[in-house]
């Protein structure tokens, strides 16, 4: 029984880890302002609710049936999430687009910083000529 629960915990970690990356990728593409905070806050709030509700439902099911059926149900729910996660995580085209947008943004920021540095140097040269 303990082995089954350890395996289920490992499965949870296996599909929750990429979810955070997907949330941040979606927010980076579509969100503005405090999108990261709101998205991750909502995710954490729902995870907290699930941590309260899941043991209660498991206890009710255990009382009505047995631990075997409770574990089978948890395993079935975990296995049904694998294909759903694969649909969202496997979109390599969107990930490549997201990576390209990120690189373009970084290049644009570097270009703007370089222009600002050049402008600052010109202003300093003009000040030296005037106040010399």
TrEMBL record:
Localisation per UniProt entry: Membrane
Superkingdom: Eukaryota
Keyword annotations: Membrane, Transmembrane, Transmembrane helix
Mode of membrane association: Multi-pass membrane protein
Entries under InterPro entries matching the protein: MFS (IPR011701), MFS_trans_sf (IPR036259)
Predominant location: membrane
TM stretches of this protein: 6-27, 39-62, 68-90
MF-aspect GO terms: transmembrane transporter activity
GO-annotated cellular components: membrane
Name listed for the protein in its UniProt record: Uncharacterized protein
The organism of origin for this protein: Linnemannia gamsii
